[in-house]
Amino acid sequence: MNVSVIGMSHRTAPVEVREKLSLPGDLPARLLRAARAEGAVEEAILLDTCNRTELYFVARNRDNARGWFLDLIGRVKGKAVDADPSCLVRLDGVDAVRHLFRVSAALDSQIVGEHQILGQVKAAYRLAVHERTSHFLLNRLLHAAFRVGKRCRTETGLSRGAVSVAHAAVALASRIFSDIRGKTALLVGAGEMAEAAARALMAQGVSRLVVANRTLSRAQQLADDLARGRSAGPEAPDADDADGEEITCPALLAMLGGLPPRQAAAAPAPVTRAVEIADIPAVIDEADMVICSTGSPEPVLEAAQLGEALRRRRRFLFIVDIAVPRDVDPTLGDFPNVFLYNMNDLDQVVARNLQRRREEIPAAEAIVDDEVLQFIRWHDSLQMASTIKLLKQRFAMRQQAEIERYGRLFHADDRDQLGQFAQGLCNKLLHQPIAFLKGLTEDATASDQLMAVATIRKMFELDSLEEDS
Predict the structure, then answer these.
(1) In whole angstroms, what is the distance from residue 23 CA to residue 34 CA?
(2) Position 439 pLDDT exceeds 90
(3) Has residue 338 got a pLDDT over 80?
(4) Which domain holds residue 182?
(5) DSSP H or E run through 456
(6) Candidates 50, 152, 249, 426; catalytic one
């Protein structure tokens, strides 16, 4: 099976290494275009999230894939990636298929059962389709992965109790503050994650929100919409992506033993304000908490920038950095009045959240095993030799059926000639499809070969013939 995956995740590399390979903004699309243009792979899908950067690909030559992948990332980023190729994990064939299915089922997630990952896999697939790097084989594989994720959500309790990053941030803040009502929150970034966090904070009674963004107009739009109670973001996620819940981020979920209680009555709309990121040093003293979620490739909060303001500060500051690459200079956590949480903190507390879902893991793993077996059977059914054998068998059956149907109309001395005629005609009709299939092994891609075999099998109903044999 000519499918491979190469990359890293929270299981194989710390955030310091993962952020070197992260691909914010339009870099995933640019990487797929570069891979397609150079012809190194026949198909490719890139999954880039806060916890993993993985390339699923089909290629005839899979030698030195680690070095090639690091070099490709360096080229689209415009600078060499300072990472040892051994930090990348490489899986081929059935192992690659199983890995994708476990990822889609949230069995390989930092927080087992989180439901954001399936939406991220779907987004990665949509991008690959748009960039024309996913074809017959990966199309089939990814749709099987979607089915795995959906089955694990609906047939097991693995995802029960998953929460959004907004509720996670509020719950964590509630452990730091005795009461967040009346507090001021600074949101660094003005995207969907920032809006979701803002609305969760508003539900818990935060009194002031400061939105900082590189583009002031975008920050002002979000601030105005929050003040009016409108949604500034896109439509709600597809129900099939997130079961109607807010998109989760596993980055904070492990820190929680439960969610903070909702306020009994709706809190008044907070006072909102928009600033540019460059103005953060001037407003940082107003904030009690900071939530960072930009797509910046470099830190946006640095010790050199904020050190003086933090040293003057007489109360503590709670910072949650859920961006990869990180938005916050790690040395800010050295200030005695700063509580800084980022992705590296999670491994120490994952066990708290995992226990309640552990009993659901075997059921989810059984679904993965079942779907892997189905995919292997489908792939193996499209092998060239077995298809040609079945095709000959189908024509032999049709030949015999026609001889039995019309043989009684011929004199006994002529029936042998009828058989020879039927056999010769069938052989001539078979010549073109068999020659076509055999020719594919020399020139066509793996996907083209599989698609052609699948078409032949459907055209001549070979699957039913195989099932009856």
Answers:
(1) 14
(2) no
(3) yes
(4) 165-354
(5) helix 446-459
(6) 50
Question: Residue type for 51, please?
Answer: N
Q: Give pLDDT tens digits for 352-400.
A: 555 667 788 999 999 999 999 999 988 887 777 777 788 888 888 888 8
How many domains does one find in the chain?
A: 3
**Residue 469 maps to a domain:** no
Task: Please give the angle made by the CA atoms of 358, 146 and 199, to the nearest 5 degrees.
Answer: 75
Active site residue 50: yes
With CA atoms as reference, report the closest residue to 196 among 254, 253, 236, 242. 236
Handedness of CA 289, 223, 200, 193 (dihedral sign): negative
Alpha helix stretches (DSSP H) within 297-445: 303-312, 350-358, 361-381, 384-406, 412-443
The fraction of the chain above a pLDDT of 90, given in percent, is: 42
Q: Is the pLDDT of residue 242 over 60?
A: no
pTM of the full predicted structure?
Answer: 0.67
The answer to the question of residue 132 being in a domain is yes
The CATH number for 129's domain is 3.30.460.30
Q: Which two tokens stand for residue 170?
A: 């509020």
Residue with tokens 């964590």: 172
